[in-house]
Amino acid sequence: AMDIEGLGEALVNQLVDTGLVKDVADLYSLTAEQLAVLDVGRTKLDGSAVVLGETVARKLVASINESRHRPLARLLFGLGIRHVGGTVAELLAEAFGSVDALAAASEADIAAVSGVGPKIAESVRAFFSNPDNLEVIERLRAAGVEMAERRTEPTRPQTLAGLTFVLTGALERFTRDEAGAALKALGAKVSSSVSSKTSYVVAGSDAGSKLDKAIALGVPVIGEQELVEILQTGQPPATGGDR
């Protein structure tokens, strides 16, 4: 979630097994010296253990240091809050802007965020009501992990503000993440689920249940070419899209 290059599952298991890491905050106190001698679970031909080594260790520490400055949504995702994946984390980051504001929010305030709802809100509120979790957050803060969203002025006019798009199926010209980011740059919201409040569904090839639900709800459906035109002009389709 925090995009730490080189920190794969096998290495994480080693760090936990050796006691170097007991929770996520411990990652930020690791040194290259500690990591360099870490047994990676393999042996050389002479029977001696293979260790991580100084070069890899230095690169890993540098990657951990870089992750202190990830966007708030990545941090919220990385905290491991139940039901909070990448998409929900983005919604919460946009709505509250900081860990402190989210931690202070009531369950009702969290549930009121479009795309969140009561089940997720209950889980988020329970997470921030746990003293152990709050202690980890304070240790992350002390380690220099950024706890608030960096607000920047949009580079393009927010002509799609107030519109919600859902992307489904495979696109040819870009990934869904790239398309979603481009829509957000124009002020749109991008949701993972279709509802009556969805403005448009962008249907690529092999679109499945989301397309079916859009048709059932009467939500306008557009194709990839129409999406390209939206991103080029900054304007939504003049018609309701293809059904």
Descriptive account of the structure:
With 243 residues, the chain is α/β, with parallel strands linked by helices. It is 45% helix and 9% strand. Helix 11 links the parallel strand 5 (200-203) and strand 6 (221-222). The model has no long low-confidence stretch (mean pLDDT 91).
Q: Can you describe this structure in just a few lines?
A:
With about 240 residues, the chain is an alpha/beta fold. The protein is about 45% helix and about 10% strand.
- Counting DSSP H or I runs of 4 or more residues, the number of helices is 12
Helix proportion = 40-55%
Q: Which strand order does the major sheet show?
A: 4-3-5-6
Q: Mean pLDDT, as a whole number?
A: 91
Instruction: Report strand %.
Output: 5-15%
The largest sheet is:
4 strands, parallel
Radius of gyration: 22 Å
Spatial shape? globular
Uncertain ranges: none
Element pattern in H and E: HHEEHHHHHHHEHEEHEH
Structure summary, number of beta strands: 6
CA distance, first residue to last residue: 36 Å
Structural class: alpha/beta
Quaternary structure: single chain
